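cron nightly-structures :: item 1 of 1
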Amino acid sequence: MNEKTTNDHDLSVGSLTLGSRPALVIIDMSLGFTQPDSPLGGNFSAEVDNIKHLLEQFRARELPILYTTVVYHNEHQASVFRTRLPDLNILQANSKWVQIDPRLMPRTNEPIVEKCWASGFFQTDLLAQLQTKKADSIVVVGLTTSGCVRATAVDGLQHDYPVFVVPQGCGDRNLTAHNASLHDINAKYGVVLSLTELCHALTQLQT
């Protein structure tokens, strides 16, 4: 990893800066995506374990942590998206499928942002939450790499946040799409940083 310290509080990776208060944004680690018996799901146990490790690191440093989950309250929400991908219709409010996987249970100070589309930013309060928590960069992990992770990373950049994506914390049922999306993100929208590199970067933060 190419690092340099720009001041006592900032850590640079490539051309982007992790800053002094990165936020961990965990995308759609709900039962609808983490459970193999869901039509949207798969076996993502390794990704869950890696995100648990990141949670420990962020919690130990009292850094912001936010979750997203896809939830539909009526048939009109994201109707075109749901027509294109009918399996999304299982993600109804009060369904078990919209609940965050218990292995990654949020704490009371870790908000869950409901969304209807791919990006965690689109028609949600994610931006406001990040601003309230004074985040100066975002670390994006979750499901799926080629869908909601990529969309959130792109929108994170479009809201002027340095974006870092940890591949070991991202999963996709299509490995080709997973790898292509990581390549695309790293080429244009953010920095793809391994779990080891990201955890090392966190140790360099001055809090």
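cron nightly-structures :: done
The first strand starts at residue 3 and ends at 5.
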